[in-house]
Automatic annotation (TrEMBL):
InterPro entries named among the record's database cross-references: CdaR-like_regulators, CdaR_GGDEF, PucR_C-HTH_dom, PucR_C-HTH_sf, RsbRD_N_dom
Record-annotated PucR C-terminal helix-turn-helix domain positions: 372-428
Organism from which the protein derives: Planobispora takensis
Protein name: Transcriptional regulator
Superkingdom of the organism of origin: Bacteria
Domain CdaR GGDEF-like: start-end pairs: 204-322
Domain RsbT co-antagonist protein RsbRD N-terminal: 33-170
Pfam families linked: GGDEF_2, HTH_30, RsbRD_N
Family: Belongs to the CdaR family.
Stretches the record annotates as Disordered: 436-465
Feature: compositional bias, Basic and acidic residues: 449-465
Length: 465
């Protein structure tokens, strides 16, 4: 009796092993059809895969076949999967990353492949108890294979992405250094990078140079938005660099590079591009970064035609940063006139040349709200038309006439005489370049009292808000 019991037990185990071998053999025979089903299912369930071309799908099929063969080899030999079994995965992961497939879609494809394989196992198990037990015996090793393979595939994918990102950053940095040295890109990758950013050396493309410098956080500000510690500055600079890179308006991404302690960007305007519109976007970028406790001082060069003048524009953008106050802002040369620039660059000698009567009037006027200064600017902007100036100031012409008379009495200057008007405008610009506290050596940017009128005529920088 005992012998019969033993024989029955061995027969059952052998039956399960036989069923398992049969299932695996049938799967091996149908490997091509299984791979076709897997690829078809991936295309149906993963839009990113459906959007790819025939060569991509062929490559995916080859990978599915290799995985199924490796999986069957592990199951036939009843052993644990090793890295040698899935060595082909790394290069496939690199190809998926290079094709622009998202990591989530790539891992989802593993899930689909596993699902198709498992459903094929269940189908071939049939209705017998031995077939069911054989299928169950395959479940755990199949899960281990899928987890092992998908984990290493994901790691390979991320490694390649990090490498590609580092290569892109390095290429962008090298391209910028080439331009700053007055050269032109000669290597294939540099040429491709230049073209991708709209920087065609052989054409006269309107563009600017932007320099941004990270400033210390304002006292009492919450620092939770950006990392603290030694890497905080680097993290903030890279975040600002990425934000500036998105300020394109001509269909190409702006070349923006972290260079030592500064950010250098080369935005291209393109035909008919408006530099003031670009300055508005840069101002918006700066203000948005303030919400992340990232404070920038930004200098913007004049518009240049072509990459050959990038070194000169770079020096302009660096020099104009000195016009900004300690809390930063955007100092944009396209927003000011040569007249204002000269005033901002003036030294104390130029201020000493101003008639003391004018200096006294401007100081008193600033303390009282600047109505006389606004009147002078509006009168100049209206081409010496008193009625037009009064309309822009929203005052009665008699009031405007009274103000001109007061200015003449206090300064001895007649605003209807060009030389006298120029004297007053120069004095105003020199006065505006000083902070309210004249004992401070830090210059401030000019702010017209009446933005709506004088600001458009004489241009100005954006002050930080």
């Amino acid at each position: 009796m005992s012998g019969g019991f033993s024989t029955g037990t061995l027969t059952a185990a052998e039956a399960v092993r036989a069923e398992r071998a049969r299932i695996l053999s049938e799967l091996l025979d149908d490997l091509g059809d299984l791979a076709d089903t897997a690829v078809t299912t991936m295309r149906a369930e993963i839009p990113a895969y459906a959007a790819q071309d025939a060569s991509f799908h062929s490559d995916v099929r080859d990978q599915v076949v290799q995985h199924y063969r490796s999986k069957l080899a592990v199951l036939f030999e009843d052993r644990t999967v090793t890295l040698d079994d899935i060595a082909f995965t790394r290069r496939a992961a690199m190809r998926r990353a290079r094709a622009g497939v998202a990591l989530a879609d790539y891992i989802n494809a593993f899930r689909v492949g596993q699902q198709v394989f498992w459903e094929a196992v269940i189908e071939r198990a049939g209705r017998s108890f031995a077939g069911h037990d054989a299928a169950l015996s395959l479940a755990a090793p199949l899960m281990r294979y899928c987890d092992f393979a998908s984990t290493h595939a994901a790691n390979a994918y991320m490694e390649f992405q990090q490498y590609a990102a580092a290569e892109a950053v390095r290429e962008s940095r090298d391209l910028l250094e080439t331009f700053l040295a007055g050269g032109t890109p000669a290597r294939g990758r540099q040429i491709a990078a230049a073209q991708a950013h709209g920087l065609w050396p052989e054409t006269s493309t309107p563009m600017l140079v932007v320099i941004a410098v990270l400033l210390p956080q304002t006292p009492g500000a919450c620092a939770a938005a950006v990392p603290t510690g030694p890497d905080r500055g680097a993290d903030a600079r890279h975040a600002a660099c990425a934000a500036i890179a998105r300020t394109w308006g001509n269909g190409t991404r702006t070349l923006s590079v972290v260079r030592h302690s500064e950010i250098v960007a080369l935005p291209v305007l393109g035909p008919g591009g408006d530099p003031e519109e670009l300055c508005d976007r840069l101002q918006a970028v700066r203000e948005n970064l303030l919400s992340e406790e990232i404070v920038l001082a930004m200098g913007v060069s004049t518009v240049i035609d072509g990459t050959a003048r990038i070194p000169q524009a770079y020096q302009e953008a660096r020099a104009v940063l000195e016009f900004l106050p300690e809390e930063g802002g955007v100092a944009a040369l396209p927003r000011i006139t040569p007249f204002q620039y000269l005033a901002l660059r003036a030294d104390d000698t130029a201020r000493h040349l101003v008639d003391p009567r004018i200096t006294s009037l401007l100081a008193e006027d600033r303390a009282r709200g600047g109505v006389l200064t606004a009147t002078i600017r509006a009168f100049a902007a209206a081409d010496l038309n008193l009625r037009t100036a009064a309309e822009r100031l929203q005052i009665h012409p008699n009031t405007a006439q009274y103000r001109l008379r007061r200015i003449r009495e206090r300064t001895g200057r007649n605003l209807r005489r060009i030389n006298d008007l120029v004297d007053l405008l120069v004095a105003i610009s020199l006065h505006d370049s000083l902070p309210p506290d004249t004992n401070s050596g830090r210059r401030r940017l000019a702010t017209a009292t009446d933005d709506r009128h004088a600001g458009r005529a004489y241009g100005r920088f954006h002050e930080p808000r």
